[in-house]
């Protein structure tokens, strides 16, 4: 039996976990195959998450939130979605909670908060963040989308690609150049909603994995954005992105551990049932050694992840720490999923088996939220500073 001794959660956390487990078993797992075929989760699932208090739990009570300032609850949310093996929901829902919502909470005007946060809590408004462009991935300073000040509003033009939650999104945090001559200091952030004239979406991409996660291009043609939808100050957008990206990368790392554990647990069951040469393949030394390697490294990864959660609760996770987490834990996920496929043999390459989906879903973890090569660069900058 695979288990890790954990000390960071109390009784209230475990009650929340059980409630979430029950919700996932009833409202997510039974529908995941359908969502994969549709290339997106259902809007109804978002509303049910909201009804059960699982969205934007840090939101102040004045907006209808629970005002829970304990990141362990966020970690449980990501973890249980990952352990369910439903990779698409394990990425899309936390992006709304832990990546997009903080931008609006921390930098939004009071008018913007009052307009958008209640709907984000209820699940009536689905959110996305739009940074990546066709010619600018990890190099955010190279974005070409522009926002021109027109007095009482901004006019946004440009396009974004690979946008998670993009197709369903009602609210999008958009990075655009307000002063193209200033490089990073010329980037600002804006809230764009789906009803703004000139804002359109492409069809969901045909991806290798994460089939239940809607990902698409976004297009902005003279989109008129009111001044109150500017996040923070003009020209401060890049700084805000760098501040909030630490939590984004930590979330990706936490999801990676849980998704890897899900694939591993599925494989533990499989090798005990599968027969070869007259006995269970779990009796072969190679299988046993592979299981031991994965179990030990997953235990190490889980303990590391728990420590990171507590560090983040104390606001001690900086860019380098988050980069290390994202790099190490996504590499672990990809390695584990590959080993699990190998232990399944030919069946591991069949889409009906959970490990096949886990393998396909894992690969992009080393690419988005900053490639792992960029993570190494951020890590070494601190080492040499």
Give an overview of the whole structure.
Its cofactor is FAD. Pathway: Amino-acid degradation; L-valine degradation. This is Acyl-CoA dehydrogenase. The chain is of the alpha+beta class and 385 residues long. The chain folds into 3 domains: 116 residues, Orthogonal Bundle (Butyryl-Coa Dehydrogenase, subunit A, domain 1), CATH 1.10.540; 108 residues, Beta Barrel (Butyryl-CoA Dehydrogenase, subunit A, domain 2), CATH 2.40.110; 146 residues, Butyryl-CoA Dehydrogenase, subunit A, domain 3. The protein is 50% helix and 14% strand. It is built from 11 helices and 10 strands. The strands form 3 sheets. A 4-stranded mixed beta sheet has the order 1-4-5-8, with helices on one face. Strands 2-3-7-6 form a 4-stranded antiparallel beta sheet, covered by helices on one side. It has a two-stranded antiparallel sheet with strand order 9-10. α1 runs parallel beside α4 and α4 packs antiparallel against α5. The model has no long low-confidence stretch (mean pLDDT 96).
């Amino acid at each position: 039996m695979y288990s890790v001794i954990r000390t960071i959660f109390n009784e209230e956390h475990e009650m929340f976990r059980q409630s979430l487990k029950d919700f996932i078993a009833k409202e997510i797992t039974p529908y995941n195959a359908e969502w994969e075929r549709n290339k997106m989760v259902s809007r109804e699932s978002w509303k049910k998450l909201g009804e059960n208090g699982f969205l934007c739990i840090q939101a102040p009570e004045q907006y209808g939130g629970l005002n829970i300032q304990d990141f362990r609850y966020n970690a449980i949310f990501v973890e249980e979605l990952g352990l369910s093996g439903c990779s698409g929901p394990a990425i899309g829902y936390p992006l709304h909670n832990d990546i997009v919502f903080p931008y609006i909470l921390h930098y939004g005007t009071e008018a913007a908060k009052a307009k958008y946060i209640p709907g984000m809590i209820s699940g009536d408004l689905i959110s996305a963040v739009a940074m990546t462009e066709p010619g600018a991935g990890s190099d955010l300073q190279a974005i070409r989308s522009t926002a021109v000040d027109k007095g009482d509003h901004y006019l946004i033009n440009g396009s974004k690609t690979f946008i998670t939650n993009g197709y369903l999104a009602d609210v999008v945090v958009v990075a655009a150049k307000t002063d193209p001559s200033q490089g990073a200091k010329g980037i600002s952030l804006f809230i764009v909603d789906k009803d703004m004239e000139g804002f359109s979406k492409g069809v969901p991409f045909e991806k290798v994995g994460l089939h239940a996660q809607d990902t698409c291009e976004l297009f902005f043609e003279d989109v008129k954005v009111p001044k109150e939808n500017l996040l923070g100050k003009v020209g401060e957008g890049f700084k805000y992105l760098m501040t909030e990206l630490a939590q984004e990368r930590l979330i990706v790392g936490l999801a990676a551990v849980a998704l890897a554990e899900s694939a591993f647990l599925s494989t533990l069951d499989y090798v005990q049932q599968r027969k070869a040469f007259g006995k269970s393949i779990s009796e072969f030394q190679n299988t046993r050694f592979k299981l031991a390697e994965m179990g030990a490294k997953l235990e190490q990864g889980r303990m590391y992840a728990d420590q990171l959660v507590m560090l983040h609760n104390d606001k001690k996770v900086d860019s380098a720490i988050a980069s290390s987490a994202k790099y190490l834990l996504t590499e672990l996920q990809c390695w584990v999923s590959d080993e699990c496929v190998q232990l399944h043999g030919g069946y591991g390459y069949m889409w009906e088996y959970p490990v096949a989906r886990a393998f396909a879903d894992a690969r992009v973890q080393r690419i988005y939220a900053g490639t792992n090569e960029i993570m190494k660069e951020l890590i070494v900058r601190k080492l040499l500073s």
